[in-house]
Amino acid sequence: MNKVKFLVLSLCSFVVLSSCDFLERNKPLVNEVGRALVDEIENSQRSGGVADAASAPVAGGDELLSQDTPDGVPEQMLRRTGYTASYNKATKLPNWVAWHLTADRTTGPAKRSGVDFQADMDVPAPRAEDSDYYGSGYDRGHMCPAADNKYSEKAMEESFLFTNMCPQNGNLNRGDWNEMEQACRRWAKEYGGVYVVCGPILYKGKHKTIGKNKVVVPEAFFKVVLRTGENPKAIGFIYKNAEGNRPKGDYVNTVDEVERITGIDFFPSLPDDVENKVEATADIADW
After folding, report:
1. Element housing 85 (H / E)
2. How much is the pLDDT for 56?
3. H helices within 152-264, ranges in order?
4. Strand partners, 195
5. Which DSSP category does 218 fall into?
6. 3-class SS at 278?
C-alpha cells in the first residue's frame, strides 16, 4: 500500500471516530495527518505521477488521423481507404491530408502506371480538374503519395483524386519533397509505422491560381511526422513551393512552429503531456 492510500485510510478512520469526543481531544494529531496527506499528494503530482504518465507507451489509433482545422476555414472531411483529408472548397485544395504509414502499405499489387488523375465528384463544383494543370507550369503534387498506397488498388486509385493534390513546383515535387516521402517510408519500416500529415501553406494576401477553376497555388508546404510507442517523437518540415536542393535538416521545424504558421492543431488526441513534449522540439538526428 502506498503512502497516499495509507494516509487516506488513516484520515477516514479519524473522521469515523469523530462521532465521539476523540476528535476534540486529538485535534493536533488529526491536523498533522491532514497536512501529511496534502504534502504527499503534492509531491506525487510533482514527481512520480507526472513522470509515470509521460513515460508510458503511447498507443496509436485512427483518432490520430483527425487534426483540428482553424475556425472559419472551409472544411469537408473525406475519409479514403489510405488517408483522411480535410478539403477546402474555396481554395480547391486539401487543408491537410493524414495517413498511418506502415511498411506493408508500401508494397503490394497496386501499380501507379495506368491510374489516371481524376476530379473528386464527392466535392462541390467548381472543383479541380486535370485541365486546370495543363500549361500551368506546376506538377500535380500528391500529398499522400501513390507509393504509400501500393497495398490496395482502391487506395492507389484514390490517391490520384485532385482532393489529394496541390499545384507543386516540379523540381520540388521530384526532388526534395520526393526525398522526404522516401524518408517517411524508411521511418515506417524502422519504427513500425508513423503518422504523417501534410498540406499546403497559404500566406496572407492574394494567391496565384491556375486553370478555369482557379485552383490556388500554395506558397509553401508542411509535413509533420509522429511516431508512437515507448519513445514517442514528432518532427515538422516546411518547404517553399520553389526549386531547391538541400538536405532534410534545412527544412526541419518543431510541430509547434508548423502549428503557429498553419493554425492547425496536430494530433490533438494525444495526452496533453505527451503532445506538449513531442511538439516542442525537433531534431533530425532522432530520426
Report:
1. strand 84-88
2. 73
3. 153-158, 170-174, 176-191, 255-262
4. 100, 226
5. P
6. helix
Grid coordinates of 152: 490496395
Which residue in this structure is represented by grid cell 485535534? 27
Share of the chain above pLDDT 70, in %: 81
Q: Of 39, 44, 28, 36, which Cα lies nearest the Cα of 10?
A: 36
Run of H or E including 223: strand 220-227
How many Cβ atoms from other residues are within 10 Å of residue 246's Cβ? 11
Measured between alpha carbons, how far is 151 from 120 in angstroms, rounded to an integer?
Answer: 21
- Do residues 164 and 94 touch, judged by C-beta distance below 8 A? yes
Q: Dump pLDDT digits (tens) for 72-85.
A: 999 999 999 999 99
Exposure string over 184-213, b if 16+ CB within 10 A, otherwise e: bbebbeebebbbbbbbbbbeeeeeebbbeb
91 vs 207: CA distance, rounded Å: 9
Give the pLDDT confidence score for residue 44 in this predicted structure. Answer: 43
pLDDT band at residue 278 under the 50/70/90 scheme = very high
pLDDT at 8: 42
- Grid cell 518543431 — which residue? 254
Q: The C-alpha cell of 77 is what? A: 472531411
199, 119, 120, 185: which is closest to 146 by C-alpha?
Answer: 185
Looking at the annotation, which residues are catalytic? 142
Cell, residue 202: 497559404
Cα(85)–Cα(65) distance, integer angstroms: 9
